[in-house]
Amino acid sequence: MPVLTDANPGVPNALSVEREELFPIREVARLTGVNPVTLRAWERRYGLIQPTRTESGHRLYSMTDIDRVRSIIGWIDRGVAVSKVGKILAKTEPLRALAQIIPNERVQADYAQWQQQVQAAVNAFDEVQLEQVYGQIFSSYPLTVVFQDILIPLWTRLLLRQEAFGQASEWLFLDGFLRSRVLQRLLLVRVMQPRRIIVCALDDQCRELDVLVTALFLSSVDSAIQVLAIGQPFDELTLICERIKPKALVLVSNHAPTAELPRRLNRLALSLDCQLMLVGDAADLAQESLAGSSVGCLGNEGMVMRQRLKQFLAGNLDT
To answer: CA-CA distances (angstroms) from residue 302 to 41, 220, 295?
Structure first.
């Protein structure tokens, strides 16, 4: 998305947005998972967002607006009525603005300290210590932060750094621990209802923990989540969906999409009686090539993929 300046037609000349990157409402819907109708309602009915308008009346949203949309989503997810979110933001946003004065390095330093504690437990192959640290992290941060900002980055570093003796064993120890704990959480949050979501790897293009964490992020959607094993043949997904009759099939891939991926996914989508979704790094990279198709791209960030899945299942968000 290019930076919009005075050279762009139809963009306001206000100094505050002169060199700021602005996004149309459809792009904001893609980035946040909130459909345009809802965004307009939040603006008109509740005054929660105040986007910039072009001379022709089209809405343009800044990154600050998008961050506010994500904050609104967060409060709604916690059970706060949308009509009350404005009052909460009025109290919390000044504090957040003050916190911006403190360098972001402090937050990263907090994450790094937790990672060091996890690393120490892994180095000692001490599952009891690792369990204690794991529990403390969960008591301090929400689910998405625990995995996206603390555990998965460390897990990835250990995966890529296996040249020295013992490092492969350390990664296997952490990987096994995290997979077992995520499976436990999936069992605890499972809600057996007729509407079901199937999550599986696309052609082994991710590891089992990637699939399990994705399933955990999506488990707050009001549906049962069923995870297929790594190695699931792509050509047999139609058969599985015919027998399980899910509401959606979510494929996980962290590989760069090949040129033939859109064709393969569209062919699969035509054979299914449920919605087909793509999640992970490939979802962002394939977004443009899949635009207008029946394949939905959920992105690779926990909160966004969860919201977008809700919107797709409700039929309120275009693919």
So the answer is: 24, 11, 19
User: What is the 3-state secondary structure of 264-317?
Assistant: HHHHHHHHCCCEEEEECHHHHHCCCCCCCCCEEEEECCHHHHHHHHHHHHHCCC
Nearest to 30 by CA among 66, 6, 81, 77: 66
Torsion of CA 219, 224, 225, 226, to 10 degrees: 160
Distance CA 183, CA 168 (A): 22
Contact 268, 203 (CB under 8 A): no
**Structural element, H or E, at residue 59:** strand 59-61
The one-character DSSP state at 58 is -
pTM above 0.85, yes or no: no
- 3 state SS of 33: coil
Tens digit of each residue's pLDDT, the chain (319 residues): 333 433 333 333 333 333 457 889 988 888 888 889 999 999 988 889 999 988 888 899 988 888 888 888 877 877 778 888 887 777 666 655 554 444 467 788 889 999 999 999 999 999 999 999 999 998 888 888 899 989 999 999 998 888 789 999 999 999 999 999 999 888 776 655 556 899 999 998 899 999 999 999 988 666 788 999 999 999 999 999 999 999 999 999 988 888 899 999 999 999 999 999 999 988 888 888 888 888 999 988 888 888 888 888 877 655 5
Furthest C-alpha separation in the chain: 64
Map out the domains of the chain with their CATH numbers.
15-99 (1.10.1660.10), 105-184 (1.10.1240), 192-314 (3.40.50.280)
Interacting residues of 294 by C-beta distance below 8 A, sequence separation 6+: 266, 269, 270, 275, 276, 319
